[in-house]
Write a structure and sequence with these properties.
262 residues; alpha+beta; 5-stranded antiparallel β-sheet; 20 strands
């Protein structure tokens, strides 16, 4: 009975982490470019009381063994990088991605981070930056006096300057993608950094190497499905209640044992 209490406790811890993951998904339902997480569980080791296939005293072979499981553990929180819906904003600096690519941005420490959030702004000198002020890589500088900014599906940036009739190309946006994007490490602020699990980034132009295309004037919404998360929440809550009941029943059995009289 003591074993059952510890086993049930592992289940309660995992269901609590499941609820934490669901809450994080729901909290970011309106976060641009957010990718939901899915939690995965594995059973723990087993205590073997009898090996399968052993022979009993009569010499016959036991068709099955006796194993008692010791609970559950969290195996991974897998990030789902499926495409979110595209919402029109009519802002020329909102650049949604249709495909597997990531934008590259400079971090304050000189490193490179990756994001699906294409809601860019202009800095004081006209450089494209994220909402946190991180520069896009490679840097794109919009000249002063630009009347119109055009970014095509292949990432070519053109501007129409005052007094001119034709647009001038001023830069090219490059994207990155990963063999295993689920291996990226989230650091907050809609940013990811590479890890040994994600592999090194593959750099290319939009429309090449499965990078996807850029859609100007649109923002990629979160891929969180509210109904699915609500169902998962109910499942996690009921599982937590059932596992906690196991602890209560085990405690009742111990109480009966303690109250035995000769």
């Amino acid at each position: 009975m003591i074993r059952s209490m510890y086993t049930a406790a592992t289940g309660m811890e995992c269901q609590q982490l499941y609820m934490d993951t669901i809450s994080h998904n729901l909290a970011n339902v309106n976060t641009s470019g957010f990718k939901r997480q899915k939690i995965e569980f594995q059973d723990l080791m087993y205590q073997t009381l009898r090996e399968p296939g052993v022979r009993n005293f009569e010499g016959s072979m036991a068709p099955s063994g006796i194993e008692v499981g010791l609970g559950v553990r969290t195996a991974a929180t897998n990030r789902i990088f499926e495409q979110g819906s595209l919402n029109q904003t009519s802002n020329p600096l909102d650049l949604a991605l249709e495909g597997d690519g990531f934008y590259q941005v400079y971090l304050p420490d000189g490193g490179i981070a990756y994001t699906r959030d294409g809601s860019f702004k202009l800095s004081s000198d006209g450089t494209l930056v994220t909402s946190e002020g991180f520069f896009l890589e490679p840097q794109i500088v919009i000249p002063e006096g630009a009347q119109e900014i055009t970014i095509d599906a292949q990432g070519k940036v053109s501007v129409l300057l005052a007094g001119e009739d034709t647009s001038t190309e001023i830069g090219q946006i490059e994207l990155a993608r990963f063999i295993n994007p689920s291996g990226l490490k989230a650091i907050g602020g809609n940013l990811f950094v590479e890890t040994d699990s994600s592999g090194v980034p593959i750099i290319g132009l939009p429309g090449e190497l499965n990078m996807g295309f850029i859609k100007q004037g649109y923002a990629e919404a979160s891929n969180v499905q509210i109904v699915e998360e609500m169902v998962n929440m109910i499942t996690a809550q009921r599982a937590f209640e059932i596992v906690s009941k196991s602890i209560q029943v085990s405690e009742d059995m111990l109480q009966v044992t303690n109250n035995l009289k000769r």
